[in-house]
Design brief:
single chain; Immunoglobulin-like; 1 helix; 15% helix; 39% strand; rod-shaped; four-stranded antiparallel sheet; 150 residues
Length: 150
């Protein structure tokens, strides 16, 4: 009789544990293909845009409520509609490539994802000055016998 009661108690605890585990796995989850993008070396004014692809791996719609760049030179755009379970989408990030020098910026994503409600994406690289052709100044014709002014 004792063994029978222990068996029922064990089975009951197992069922409760499985249900609790399933409850933990509900809701939206987000998985990014990458969280860092390296532009390498770009020329000033060049295309400094990239996309961060992600998938909702959860069981409920994923809602991205905000995406904020670390400065005004880094501008993200994100889907405003809910991303259904299993659906893939992207966050686009554009950097102002008119600024010369190293790039090391971040974009902070806020969502209802259970696994990562706040996610930081990074961009890096270096912007070099574009080659500027030297300015050609007009040459004045000298008048014979006139003094030369430097």
């Amino acid at each position: 009789m004792k063994n029978l009661l222990l068996s029922f108690a064990f089975i009951g605890a197992s069922i409760f544990g499985v249900q609790a585990q399933q409850a933990l796995n509900t809701g939206p989850d987000v998985e990014f293909e990458k969280d860092i993008h390296d532009f390498g070396t770009l020329t000033q004014g060049g295309n400094a845009s990239t996309e961060f692809m992600f998938t909702n791996t959860g069981s409920e719609p994923l809602i991205i409520s905000n995406a904020r760049g670390s400065c005004g030179c880094t501008v993200p755009s994100w889907p405003k509609q809910p991303i259904k379970p299993g659906e893939t989408s992207s966050i686009k990030v554009k950097y102002d490539s008119n600024r010369i020098g190293p790039i090391n910026k971040s974009v902070t994503i806020t969502s209802n994802a259970g696994n990562e409600p706040t996610k930081v994406l990074r961009i890096k690289g270096n912007i070099t000055a574009k080659d500027v052709a030297p300015a050609v100044l007009p040459v004045k014709e000298a008048t014979p016998g006139a003094p030369i002014n430097n």
